[in-house]
Amino acid sequence: MRNRTSDKRATEPGAHPLQLPLWSARDASPGWNVRISRRARRLSMRVFPGGRVEVVVPPGVGIPAVERFVTRHRDWAERRAGELSLQSPQAAQRQPTEVTLASSGQSWPIAYEQGYRSAFAETEEPALRVRTAGGTDRQVGLTLLRWLSRKAAVHFGERLDAVAGETGLDYSRLLLRRQRTRWGSCSSAGTISLNVCLMFQRPEVVRYLMIHELCHRRHMNHSPRFWQLVESFEPQCRMLDKELLQGWRHVPAWVFP
């Protein structure tokens, strides 16, 4: 039987990614940033909902190579950024006036204030007060991220226990991460990792992802037997999987300050 104590839940919001100064302040494009990733094996470019563009650079790649890569793909990125900024204008907000967590069906209007140190507090309305020292986008994003991680730890912990009981599939502990490309994972030791960005997805999608990861406790692969097990618990798994692939459009920009 699984030990249902709180020590199996841990949060790991992730360290601030290394940044590469590519453009001068005069030439910089709003909404563009370059991130050095130790896991990257090649240069890549991604456009996020709201129009934010991120260039991912492997360690050791020099600025001239990055500049050539950006030059080749800049027209495509700017065109795609324009399309996504029109589709999801709220996703580009770095200091939102309200946060809605689709997974739990809750919304919080936000009031900002300045203080000596960053902090957040929920009020009874419910509403959220966010205090930062300088009021910068980064300070706001990091403060909101701490609040989001705390909400996710409680909500996902309860939901994962419920889904595990429903399916009869056990796990050892829950780990929360903030990742750019992966929604969840399951280790051979039984650790289920979930992305805090799942808080912006529909409950049905979150339940499917939990079932998906729990089924890896039986099959550590994506074989036909694995998918048969997933489908036995969630007949709409293929449809929900496709929806999850598009789930990044619901993730606001402040999650990655």
Please describe the topology of this protein.
Elements lengths: L8 E4 L5 E2 L12 E5 L7 E4 L5 E5 L5 H25 L10 E4 L4 E9 L4 E5 L3 E6 L4 H31 L5 E5 L6 E3 L4 E5 L7 H13 L8 H10 L3 H9 L12
Parallel strand pairs: 1-10, 3-5, 7-9, 10-12
Antiparallel strand pairs: 2-3, 4-5, 6-7, 8-9, 11-12
What order do the helices and strands follow?
A: EEEEEHEEEEHEEEHHH
Q: What's the total number of strands?
A: 12
Rounded mean pLDDT is 84
Helix segment tally = 5
Could you give the distance between the termini?
40 Å
Indicate the radius of gyration in whole angstroms. 20 Å
Strand content: 15-25%
Largest sheet: 4 strands, mixed
The coarse silhouette is globular
Overview of the structural elements:
The chain is α/β, with parallel strands linked by helices and 257 residues long. It has a domain of 76 residues. 34% of the residues lie in helices and 22% in strands. It has a four-stranded mixed β-sheet with strand order 1-10-12-11, with helices on one face. A four-stranded mixed β-sheet has the order 2-3-5-4. Strands 6-7-9-8 form a four-stranded mixed β-sheet, with helices on one face. A hairpin with a 3-residue loop joins strand 8 and strand 9. Helix 2 crosses helix 3. The longest helix has 31 residues. The N and C termini lie far apart (40 Å).
